[in-house]
Each structure stands twice: as structure tokens, then as C-alpha cells.
Specification:
This protein is mainly α and about 140 residues long. About 70% of the residues lie in helices and about 5% in strands. It contains 4 helices and 2 strands. It has a two-stranded parallel ribbon. Helix 1 links the parallel strand 1 and strand 2. Helix 2 packs across helix 3 and helix 3 packs antiparallel against helix 4. The mean pLDDT is about 80.
Length: about 140
């Protein structure tokens, strides 16, 4: 995958023609390329993602598309895993090990809050999977 920043696209017609010639070479050689323009810099993350998917689909690179989507999803999943799933389970383990005077009501409240966090933490990866792997967002 090539990434081309057409920084002088808006300068003059000669610059545009050079970029068009370059695009034609990539196209003739069937090289997938993402073209970025100066006006794309404000929405770079959105544009890059959309054009990456478009180029991979256009060149029938199914395995690479799956890898790209999986990488985006796994980055989201790892950021959710520790704070929403592992940390509450660790807190539950620590609370069960404490032999101090926690009342039953207080322990029940803590368990209920942790349960809610874990349930939400389990739904976020599912929603993320649908978002990144199925809907291409």
C-alpha cells in the first residue's frame, strides 16, 4: 500500500497534471495507493480509514483488509480489557481476601458496581467488533 500526499495539488495546473500522471502509473501497475490532499489534514484519521478500506476492497486484498480491520479492533479491545474487565476482577479478588470489617451491605454494593462495570466491559468489545469488522467504521 502506498500513501501519497499531494501537497501541491492546489498550487497550479502543472502540479495537478504531475500528480495525475503519478496516479496513472500506480493504477496501470495495480498498486493500491491512498491519495491525501491538503484539505484532508483536518480529518486525516477519518479519510485515511475510509480510503484504506476502499483501496483494499478495490484491489481485492481480502486478507489485508481483514488484518487492517482486526488491528483497529484489537487496539480498541486492549484499551477496554484492563480497565473494564481485569481491574474489576482484581478488585473482587482483593475484597474477598480482606478480612476487615466490611459490612454485608457495603460488600454487596461493591460487588454490584463491579458487576455492572464487567458487563459493560463485555459489551464494548462486541460493539467494537461489529463497528470495525462488520460496518467498516
Amino acid at each position: 500500500m502506498c500513501i501519497e500526499f499531494n501537497g501541491y495539488w492546489n498550487v497550479n495546473e502543472e502540479s495537478k497534471q504531475r500528480y495525475r500522471d503519478k496516479m496513472k502509473v500506480y493504477s496501470l501497475n495495480k498498486i493500491p495507493c491512498i491519495y491525501l490532499y491538503p484539505e484532508n489534514l483536518g480529518i486525516l484519521e477519518y479519510i485515511f480509514h475510509k480510503r484504506m478500506i476502499k483501496e483494499l476492497e478495490q484491489h481485492n486484498l481480502k486478507f489485508q483488509l481483514l488484518r487492517y480491520k482486526w488491528k483497529r479492533f484489537s487496539n480498541l479491545f486492549h484499551s477496554i480489557l484492563v480497565p473494564n474487565i481485569i481491574l474489576p476482577l482484581l478488585i473482587i479478588f482483593l475484597i474477598t481476601q480482606i478480612e476487615s470489617g466490611l459490612t454485608n451491605e457495603m460488600a454487596g454494593l461493591i460487588y454490584a458496581v463491579i458487576l455492572v462495570i464487567v458487563v459493560i466491559g463485555l459489551f464494548e468489545p462486541i460493539i467494537g467488533f461489529i463497528k470495525y469488522m462488520v460496518l467498516n467504521r
